[in-house]
Amino acid sequence: MQHLKLYHSDTLDHNGQTIHVEGPVSADRLRSFQMHTQLDAFRKPKEQFNALVEISELPEGRIIIAHDGETLLGYVTFHYPDEMERWSEAGMKDLLELGAVEVADDYRGLGLGSRMIRIAFEDGQLEAYIIFTTEYYWHWDLKGSGLSVWEYRRMMERLMKTVNMVWYATDDPEICSHPANCLMVRMGDDVPLESREQFDRIRFVRRFMY
């Protein structure tokens, strides 16, 4: 499958500071930045930076970034699902995971998350894909945000709805392990019926229960 990647950029003025949002960015472009020290939700900043570079080198990988000068303030990742998860079992070439969204603490509330996600969908470049994201409450910064688990869930839903992602039911054990966890999906306009049906078979493995 040919993976169309169309670069787009945007800017945001914040207290006299110009924040740039751009992507998808190449590995070479990424290497010119350094991570903000507050980007530590998933790994230590340096380790996460290396993971971002690796994703950007994948044929299907997409990294959207927000930055001030040479400092990364946030990022969004897109890639094929992890081979250890059920979503990879069918080997679907048109199924991409929106894997991570992170914004440095000091820059939250500016709408950077939604700006980065919207740029990823510019010019219909993801219409040939089923895009999904798995939201797990244990990844959420409940302490730092001061939000309850349900308030954080609603915030993540609003964020994903900016590109028309919607809640989908599933029997995936990890998602079903807590009622706040959820699966959100966007079906691209150009996704064929057979891929839609195949994704439904992945969502519900234990169909005899329903």
TrEMBL record:
Naturally occurring in which organism (per UniProt): Paenibacillus ottowii
UniProt xrefs under InterPro entries: AcuA, Acyl_CoA_acyltransferase, GNAT_dom
Domain N-acetyltransferase, first and last residues per copy: 19-170
Biological classification of the source: Bacteria, Bacillati, Bacillota, Bacilli, Bacillales
Protein name per UniProt: GNAT family N-acetyltransferase
Pfam families according to UniProt: Acetyltransf_1 (PF00583)
